[in-house]
Amino acid sequence: MKRGARRPFRWLSQPHPLHLVLGFALWLAWFALLYAAQGVGCAVAPPPAQQGAFTSINVLLGVGTLAFLAGFAAAAAIAARAARRQGGDEAEDAPLARFVAPAAALLYGACAVSTLVVGLPLLVVPPCV
Amino acid sequence: MSEPTATGAPRDVQALHVEMERVWGNPRGWRALSIVNHSSVALRFMVTGGVFFLIAGLLAMLIRAQLARPRQMFMGAEAYHQAFTMHGTMMMFLFAVPVLQGLAAYLLPKMLGARDLVFPRLSALGYWCYLFGGIILTSSLFLGLAPNAGWFMYTPLSSDVYSPGLHSDFWLLGVTFVEISTMAAGIEIAVSILRTRARGMALHQMPIFAWSMLVTSMMIIVGFPPLILGSILLELERAAGWAFFDPARGGDAVLWQHLFWLFGHPEVYIIFLPAAGVVSTIVPVFARRPLVGYRWVVIALVSIGFVSFGLWVHHMFAVGIPAMAQAFFSLASMLVAIPTGIQVFAWIATLWSGRPVWSVPMLWIAGFLAVFVAGGLTGVMLAFVPFDWQVHDTHFVVAHFHYVLVGGMVFPLLAGVYYWLPHFSGRMPSERLSKTGFWLSFIGFNGTFLIMHWTGLLGMPRRVYTYEPGLGWDGPNLVSSVFSFVMAFGVATVLLDLALHFRHGRKACANPWGADTLEWATATPPHAYNFASLPTLHTRHPLWLQPDLPHNIAAGMHALPHAAHGRRETLGSDPITGQPREVIHLPGNSWWPLAAGAILSVVCIALLLKAYVLAGVAALAALAVLLRWSWENGAHPSAAAGEAHDLPEGLQLHSRTFDGPGLWGMGLTLLADGALFTSLLFGWLYLWTAAPLWQPPERSALGVWPLLAVTAALAVGTGVMQRCVARLRKGQEHGLAGRLLAACACAGLAGAGLVGLLASAQLQPRENAHDAVLCLTLWFLLAHAALAAVMSALQAWRVHLGYVGLRAPYEPVVVALWWRFTAGAAAVAWLVMVVLPLAFGAQP
User: Fold this and answer.
1) For the whole model, what pTM was predicted?
2) Under 8 Å between Cβ of B630 and B642
3) Of B649, B663, B684, B647, which is closest to residue B575 (Cα–Cα)?
4) Residue A82 included in any domain
5) Contact A24/B302, CB-based, under 8 Å?
6) How far does chain A reach from its first CA to its final CA, in angstroms?
7) Which of A16, A35, A115 to mutate to test the interface with B (most CBs of B within 10 A)?
8) Which domain holds residue A103?
9) In this predicted complex, what is the ipTM?
């Protein structure tokens, strides 16, 4: 890529303190969406209980969960790479960056794990019983 | 002129103290009621909270006396209901949160290297609201009208059908009044942490207590509004007959549970996190080494701050929610144990790798670790849905949350009280009496509540005033009751120790525990101004690495070492790097907070007595007082006294910039406002989806265009305000007053449209929940539009008087933020309450 060319996700690789809260803010939005979508889905078109866990509600929520999971995992990887880059930086704000970048990587990683764990019931539990 | 960065020449310490005291000193006698200084106000919070703790503790003793034997008639059912409701309510709303906020308000400016919190008069207003609200709520006990529906006030039990009289009204109005204080403190503490740190204190160098209070304050700002909304809805249902929770009229009683626990579960962590911050502050001091895993602890605090908002339904496992939703919340409830565990391991590792010195504060920390870990483990047990069903509403749950709350808050609080006691008084705690107090409390607590787990497992339900003999509950209850009195003796011993300490305690030397944090660089007890000069920091452990700092600070060798100008000044810093951005000038002592608090208490009492005309008049009077108070702001002579030629190079007074604490305060206020509005939208969508008899009309009651026209008027007004700000940024002030008046006219137009809509839409809030929610939304928007109009008009007047303009461009930026929120809220209301129903088949 040419120098100065636009990189749409460049901000994600910068160790800005926003990363300390962005991950879990999105996780909370996903969690609320998961609960709300399950409730609305069951109110509008409840699948029969005999169908088990393989219902359109579970599939839709599962796809959304995987998308968030992938996003968190990618953000964790990018933040981890940024953390490694901060190692020998001599800039004035380097200590702050050395604090923020690894913390952001760990927080995004925690979001990914939390998404995976909370999403597991989608594989086994029928939605509206 | 002094540099904020350089170390200047020393001044005469006594002369500098006299100069500072002239500006910052507290008046004595009855004028002390006008004090706004953070140390004084914070100590008032803590002492008042202590009094409420004692009253709530006495209620607990009555409860345990009643349950000591089967068929005991020491108390009747009604008295018992009032006792347990008020015990929980007072402990949660009048003790736990206010005392922790008081401790934070006392410590944070000193830890951060500031002279005061950013909104001292708001602190004072918060205190008066807390005091008056607490007195109103507590008075219900003496009137025999105390709330009796449990501290969580479940509907329909708390509705006017099943709780006639004023019982529930005392709770709804009193608690909401007190919450003004909690919200004010939350906003003020968050802004102070972000904007008033010492130079060089970047985020990664903040004291861990500041991190815990930052997370806690943000949780308060987002977490309390659902309860405030729920209280407004329930009081409207009780007092005006509006339908929100009545299933027969399209409402749903479970909506209350959602709103309550949306607040209620984060509340547990709102109480625990400050206490965890206290522990993380104290443990390294006594371990003689820095906290192990500072970054991990920060990660844990941030994680808890968010995850705790995803747990609320675990309080509702028994109400019939689908298994999948229960599984989501069950797993999230288990997950939150991980960041909590990280903190516990960090504390243990710090002690393990340090050279611990055992003293009284560490006794309470050790007690905390034992009790809180046990409470956390039973919490994980309760996260399992089948187990929760088995013990739901039994004494097992009571035992669990007392282990979490007493272990997780009271023990660390007492550790903190003993640790900072020399700071409050200049005297050391006693060794003998304090240890006796600890052991009596620890043994009494475990004897009471450990046994209660078994009472619960044997099936004894909570909230029953008596029980039959022969059920196996007699023995455990008697043991619990006996040990509860042992605990009471422990608390009494602690109080006796504290009382004697202030008179007979050994004089403390400077920094008596060998602490690392900056609060120990002040005098003990501290002066009202905290620091004679404001230091530059390069470390998280300033007093360990710069032991001469207290002397340098007192000698005025750092920033802002003078007060001859008459202003109360502190440095305003960048929220990330801690570099100075401006000099914040703080307001001095004032009677306005007391006047506003007193008038608001008249509003509260008038609403209780259903004297609505008086309530309306008092509310208008309160608004007038608040506006008059706000008048002394910015470039007003009484707000920024003296010439400002002596500021550090490159810095201006905050009112002469486009950025200052007020902007951040408004931003966080609107975040809370947004949380309240989102809760209202959640209520709308929830009732639409879940209420069995929710019946929207075939035709939209609001029509399509009227609310859109209101939104357009507000959007135009917002544009005009933004234009004012943009022109000020370009150095143009011509026509500023005219533009502000034009914005005011837009708000007036929007307000008129909303009044017209309320009059013409023929909404029937008493008949159905659908109309009740719509009606409340319109009133919400109307209140915001009215305030936008008033603020813009006042700004125009201030431009005319020369208080706002190029020289002081700050206030229109703050008001513009309000405008953006109001226009945004109207647009969202239109989309959700007009467009969305149309999309699902309603007629325009």
Assistant:
1) 0.96
2) no
3) B663
4) yes
5) yes
6) 53
7) A35
8) 26-41+54-123
9) 0.92
